[in-house]
Automatic annotation (TrEMBL):
Residues 14-485 form the Major facilitator superfamily (MFS) profile domain. Keywords: Cell membrane, Membrane, Peptide transport, Protein transport, Transmembrane, Transmembrane helix, Transport. The keyword Aminoacyl-tRNA synthetase does not apply. Its main location: membrane. It comes from the Bacteria. The chain crosses the membrane at residues 52-73, 82-100, 112-132, 153-173, 179-199, 227-244, 250-269, 281-298, 326-348, 360-383, 389-412, 424-446, 466-485. InterPro entries: Dipep/tripep_permease, MFS_dom, MFS_trans_sf, MFS_Transporters, POT_fam, PTR2_symporter_CS. The keyword Transport applies. This is Peptide MFS transporter. It is found in: Cell membrane.
Length: 499
């Protein structure tokens, strides 16, 4: 098993291979996303509304496909191969967008090529995103206390990519030329793949196909099953290409897809798993159920909070007016600073046998994210009728980051700890599917804060309401946490148990 290999900073070396691969993947994702809305409005000359439509369809579809990628990795490919293939599709997608820049305002074939690039990223992310987190989990034995700190470190890599992508791709794209920004995203993903391939030995053999024979077996289409899957991926690119242009379908697709995925998991759990494993799947589903609420609040950052910062926050500092969009990197910077603190905190508490369980941390996360909104509401009330001091928006992001660290990396770790290995990719994919639902709800909340014609009071009213709702639900989660913990059967996870 994996745990006997060499370590670095007390963690398996493979963690750092995955850290850098995911850093570059997120660099490409967030770097490209920072340019996306401007490319649509300023280059293809779309109006705001259709541009938001395409942006929304893209950002939800990237979190829908990981369920399929996770499932395929569990059953046939293994997580390592899935990450490799996914990275290739992602890199090709970004490079395609970069290379196909036409004259300003020309849509036609250029637009089709652009959609094809987005579709390739959507499919690639489906192969990569859930499975790379699965690989992180497989580096640790089931009861290993280093798993949560390990995911905190991994999460730091995500956010180093998330902070630097927008700066580098954004700057290149908006100043030198769009192609340069998108091209940089593609090159970033290629660098991630180089790391992943060069240091694959450090993964100590985790994430290999469950049954290699099954992968080589011929299928009805005349090629091996492995190649049949890759051919299927090209077909999926065509479907994603179509969906990007039929955005009305995406919401419905999300609901139908989520319902059938949950149904499928429940079916597998109830009919194929022994009691302990079944209970753990129920525990994981409980955590997944809290995802839409958390991300619906958290994802106000890019939309309504961004606009509030722009219109109602005093951003003057040292005689300069700081652009609102710069506040978007505050969360990632806080993560990079605070992730090591949280990793150390979990280890410290664990040594004293005091480490809180995942459901408990989720309850805390929901309370703290709610408090973040209330802090802003409080700060705004101090200067009625005048702009809110910037300190309060920074405080909000501080609370939201602390909440994120109790929620997101903990959730990733819990998915790997609570799933049987034949379902781990599927569960991780479902975690991201719940994120997609959260993003969708976030849009509804942002709309409820009203447009440019209603004052900031309306926004603050909505913030105070969602803040309190989250706190109350968080307290309820704390109260039922002990019962959920029982479903996890932690007592059976001895430190030596393999994943
Ligand atoms: N920011 C994190 C990432 O990109 C979490 C994303 C999410 O689950 N919504 O991986």
């Amino acid at each position: 098993t994996a745990m006997q290999g060499p370590t670095f900073l007390g963690h398996p070396r493979g963690l750092f291979v995955l850290f850098f691969t995911e850093l570059w993947e997120r660099f490409s994702y967030y770097g490209m996303r920072a340019l996306l809305i401007f490319y649509l409005t300023k280059h293809f000359l779309f109006g705001d509304e259709p541009a938001y439509g395409i942006y929304g369809a893209y950002t939800s579809l990237v979190y829908v496909t990981p369920v399929i990628g996770g499932y395929l990795a569990d059953k046939f490919l293994g997580a390592r191969r899935a990450v490799l293939v996914g990275g290739l599709f992602i890199a090709v997608g970004h490079l395609m967008i970069g290379l196909l820049e036409g004259p300003v305002g020309t849509q036609g074939g250029y637009l089709n090529g652009f959609y094809l690039g987005l579709a390739s990223i959507i499919v690639g992310t489906g192969f990569l995103k859930a499975n790379i987190s699965v690989l992180v989990g497989q580096l640790y034995p089931r009861g290993d206390a280093r798993r949560d700190p390990g995911f905190s470190i991994f999460y730091m890599g995500i956010n180093i990519g998330g902070a630097s992508g927008p700066i580098i791709c954004g700057l290149l794209g908006e100043t030198v030329g769009w192609s340069w920004g998108f091209g940089a995203a593609g090159v970033g993903m290629l660098l991630g793949l180089v790391v992943f391939v060069l240091f694959r030995k450090d993964l100590m053999g985790v994430g290999e196909p469950p049954e290699p024979v099954l992968l080589r077996a011929r299928t009805a289409v005349g090629v091996s099953r492995e190649w049949a899957i890759y051919l299927g991926a090209f077909a999926a690119v065509a479907v994603a290409w179509w969906l990007l242009q039929s955005q009305g379908v995406v919401g419905t697709l999300l609901v139908v897809f989520a319902a059938s995925t949950i149904g499928f998991i429940l079916y597998r759990a109830v009919f194929t798993l022994p009691k302990v494993e079944r209970d753990r799947v129920f525990g994981a589903l409980f955590l997944i159920a809290l995802c839409p609420l958390f991300w619906a609040l958290f994802e106000q950052a890019g939309s309504s909070l961004n606009v509030y910062t722009d219109r109602a926050v005093d951003r003057s500092m040292f005689g300069y007016e700081i652009p609102a969009s710069l506040f978007q990197s505050v969360n990632s910077i806080f993560i990079v600073l605070m992730a090591p603190v949280f990793a150390a905190l979990w280890t410290f508490l664990d040594r004293r046998r005091l480490e809180p369980s995942a459901p408990f941390k989720f309850g805390i996360g929901l309370i703290v994210i709610g408090l973040g909104f209330l802090v802003l509401v409080f700060g705004a009330a101090l200067t009625p009728g005048a702009p809110t001091p910037a300190m309060f928006i920074l405080l909000l992001y501080f609370f939201h980051t602390a909440a994120e660290l109790c929620f997101s990396p903990v959730g990733l770790a819990a998915m790997t700890r609570l799933s049987v290995s034949s379902m781990v990719g599927l569960m991780m994919g479902t975690w991201f599917l719940a994120t997609a639902a959260g993003n969708f709800l976030a849009g509804q909340i942002a709309q409820a804060t009203g447009g440019e014609n209603v004052g900031p009071e309306r926004v603050l009213e909505v913030y105070s309401r969602i803040g309190w709702v989250s706190i109350v639900i968080g307290v309820v989660v704390l109260l039922i946490a002990p019962f959920v913990v029982r479903l996890m059967h932690l007592e059976l996870m001895k430190a030596g148990d393999p994943v």
